[in-house]
Design goal:
With about 500 residues, this protein is of the alpha/beta class. It folds into two domains: about 160 residues, Aspartate Aminotransferase, domain 1; about 250 residues, Type I PLP-dependent aspartate aminotransferase-like (Major domain) (Aspartate Aminotransferase, domain 2), CATH 3.40.640.10. It has 17 helices and 14 strands. The chain has a seven-stranded mixed sheet with strand order 2-8-7-6-5-3-4, with helices on both faces. Strands 9, 10, 11, 13 and 14 form a five-stranded antiparallel sheet that branches. Helix 10 packs across helix 11 and helix 14 runs parallel beside helix 17. The termini are far apart. The relative contact order is 0.15.
């Protein structure tokens, strides 16, 4: 074929003929601001002069990237799973060796390099079920309802995929998601060509669920010709940092049951509860306490080793507990999961240590508990510091950071700043975020990437930088904000 003919052919996949659902997807947490932050880092490395010495990526809940130390016991077990030669090392505690050996015994060929069953290693699934049962005060959990996954995200996507029927109903399936929400949900809904039905959280009531808003969203979706199929609840909340009350959970359970909605319970921050009076309640326990018919509802709950006190984001470990699925649908889910062969075995091993930590009397218990408790106490201090700092700055209001790893302060922007943003073709919170990045090196995510009430402006920042770095970050931010407000007042 001639060169001219090859050039005339052009690419097979173009923006015009590619999957439009992929084009529609957005994921603000790793969007244009983060790309620019990475470019600035490279500019600093090349010696380009900036009014700051480094970039602070407060855009994502990556604990270890922000200086949190790995949990020693967890890493000891993972090290032994990857390199069993260490089982003979007298310096490694026996409880770490015992856990590693149990995991290796569950691996084919006693090697983490072998495939596992698609839904995960059986002994780890059994340990997860025991953990859930203990967490929920004895509420039964069946290990066969447990699916291990490469982080909670993959489990959420795998289950959500079941809800789209491109050849069935003429109506688009609708997924109810909280606003603000974690962009995984809006991106997945778009990718699977479903309809997003956003229900607003009540900011003035510390981002609680508002049943009237949920009902309004359902009614509007039905009026728009959407078929509501599922409702997502994130507790503790991302990006809002709220922790839902038992009453909130009961309300949404009754709502989901009444409207025959599949319930997605994103509970990956269940260890991250800080505020006095706040307490994590699992949906699994709540439906059990409410009794029939609620205890027979379809429910998928998700957990991860990326958050909590562990922060093992890169290892990609998680689980889903799938309650009351139709057995035939469950078989189809397993078939779908099997096409991905299996989640990473190291990630499965990490999840095993999370649900099966040292117990009192074992050699690693005291040091493990000291590290876990210390990490969570430090996060609680930083959660309060962040919220208090924002509330001390004119032009901000911030709800109490009750849990999770983020604050979602509200920006009260002057009209002149809003007009300037419009002039440069940006949303006002996006304009603010880019100005903050260019002037201070702080990368946050504007509220428009998560969803927010029209006419309000927010951003999400993590509370994860270690305290000295966090204080420095907040000082930089305050200095910028004061100048920004003066310029645009």
């Amino acid at each position: 074929m001639s060169t001219a003919a090859v050039e005339k052919m052009g690419p097979t996949i173009t923006l015009d003929n590619m999957n439009p659902c992929v084009k529609k997807m957005e994921y603000a947490v790793r969007g244009p601001l983060v790309i620019r932050a990475t470019e600035i880092e490279k500019e600093i490395q090349r010696g380009v002069s900036k009014p700051f010495k480094d970039v602070i990526k407060a855009n994502i809940g990556d604990a270890h990237a922000m200086g949190q130390a790995p949990v020693v016991f967890l890493r000891q077990v993972l090290g032994l799973v990857v390199n069993p030669d260490g089982l003979n090392d007298p310096l490694i505690p026996t409880d770490a060796k015992e856990r590693a050996q149990v995991i290796l015994d569950g691996c084919k060929g006693q090697s983490a390099g072998s495939y596992s069953d698609s839904v995960g290693i059986e002994i780890i699934r059994r340990h997860v079920a025991e953990y859930i049962q203990n967490r929920d005060g004895g509420v039964p959990s069946n290990w066969e309802d447990i699916v291990l996954c490469a982080g909670a995200s993959e489990g959420i996507r795998a289950v959500m995929k079941l809800l789209f029927n491109p050849t069935g109903s003429s109506k688009k399936p609708g997924i109810m998601i909280p606003i603000p929400q974690y962009p995984l949900y809006s991106a997945t809904v778009a990718e699977f060509n479903m309809a997003q039905m956003g229900y607003f959280l009540d900011e003035e009531n510390n981002w609680a669920l508002d049943l009237n808003e949920i009902q309004k969203t359902l009614d509007q979706g039905i009026a728009d010709g959407v078929e509501p199929r599922a409702i997502v609840v994130i507790n503790p909340g991302n990006p809002t940092g709220n922790v839902l009350s038992k009453q909130n959970l009961e309300d949404v359970i009754r709502f989901a049951h009444k409207n025959k909605l599949f319930l997605f319970a994103d509970e990956v921050y269940q260890d991250n509860v800080y505020a006095e009076g706040s307490e994590f309640h699992s949906f699994k326990k709540m439906v059990h306490e409410m009794g029939e018919p609620y205890s027979k509802m379809e429910l998928a709950s998700f957990m991860s080793c990326s958050k909590g006190y562990m922060g093992e984001c890169g290892i990609r470990g998680g689980y889903a507990e799938l309650c009351n699925l139709d057995p035939e649908v469950n078989a189809m889910l397993n078939k779908s999961i099997s096409a991905k062969l299996c989640p990473t075995v190291v990630g499965q091993a990490c999840m095993d240590v999370v649900v099966n930590p040292p117990v009192k009397g074992e050699p690693s218990y005291d040091s493990f508990m000291a590290q876990k408790t210390g990490t969570l106490q430090s996060l609680a201090e930083r959660a309060k510091l962040v919220a208090d700092t924002f509330n001390s700055i004119d032009g901000f209001t911030c709800q109490t950071v009750q849990g999770a790893m983020y604050a979602f302060p509200r920006l009260h922007l002057p009209e002149k700043a809003i007009a300037k943003a419009k002039e440069v073709g940006q949303a006002p919170d996006v304009f603010y975020a880019f100005q903050l990045l260019e002037n201070t090196g702080i990368c946050i995510i504007p509220g428009s990437g998560f969803g927010q009430r029209p006419g309000t402006y927010h951003f999400r920042t993590t509370i994860l930088p270690q305290k000295p770095a966090l204080i420095s970050m907040l000082d930089r931010l305050k200095g910028f904000h004061v100048k920004f407000m003066e310029e645009y007042s």
